[in-house]
Amino acid sequence: MGAGAAVWLLGHRDQEASRLRKLLAPHARQPSPMPRWQQLITAARGRLRPEGWCLAAGATVALLGESVVPLAVGAAGVPLAAGVRRARDARREREWRRAAVIAWLGELAAEVRVGRQPGDALRLTLQDSVDAGAGPGAARSTVLAAARFGGDVPGALRSAAREPGAEGLLGLAACWRVAVDRGAGLAAGLGRLEAALRSERDQRADLRAQLAGARSTAVMLAALPVLGLLMGSALGAEPLRVLLHTGPGLACLGVGGVLEGVGVWWALRIVRRAEER
């Protein structure tokens, strides 16, 4: 009886503390707002794309060097920066879709192993992915419709596999056709397919980590001319005036810029081809 009374008192005390926290929550100390300049910087980072920063850098150098050449170079670099950004976003989306396919295959294999029919497991896991906004990609609705209304599921999977990063669905289409047409076990095939895709993803990540040093070295070497300009300005040589307001300086700037761009492109192309292989 005494223990029951103690438990009741502890529960009552917890309820009172919770009620007190709710009453005092509106009067709690609010975090201090950020300064105006910090808010502007945060908003600029969220809205200004990399190509915008390229143009801003060109405008800054143009003001420092009192020449329109850096501004023109910055404006010319906007399409290049936009292409790099689009390629980066496409690569991220492709990696996200690969991870989503692997996760979905794992869920599908788990549902089949517990005894659920392949069609029911496919509909259940796909419906969950549609509701969560995840899954193998935008074509998941087509696969879901084919599984729900008795359509060509392997054909829908092959169509979904055309999206970048969803190539693993081709293996699922083959496993599905063999399991449905010949009565083979689907769970074992899904397990092997998931393991193969995970191994391939891990190998790709390991290769990317090994090539990160080469990519960083190429970018660092590309930034050395900027360091030379800063050192020349610190020594009082006025390199911007020489490069932007004299004939030989403009010639050196043009030739050096072309060689710099070709060198960076070639180095990154070697790294990219190594990743693809």
Automatic annotation (TrEMBL):
Broad class of where this protein is predominantly found: membrane
A Pfam entry, by short name: T2SSF
GO cellular component, one term: plasma membrane
Stretches of the chain forming a coiled coil according to its record: 190-217
Alphabetical keyword list: Cell membrane, Coiled coil, Membrane, Transmembrane, Transmembrane helix
Domain Type II secretion system protein GspF positions: 105-231
Topology relative to the membrane: Multi-pass membrane protein
Domain of life, source organism: Bacteria
Location in or out of the cell: Cell membrane
Classification via InterPro entries: T2SS_GspF_dom
Transmembrane segment boundaries: 55-84, 218-236, 248-268
Protein name as catalogued: Type II secretion system protein GspF domain-containing protein
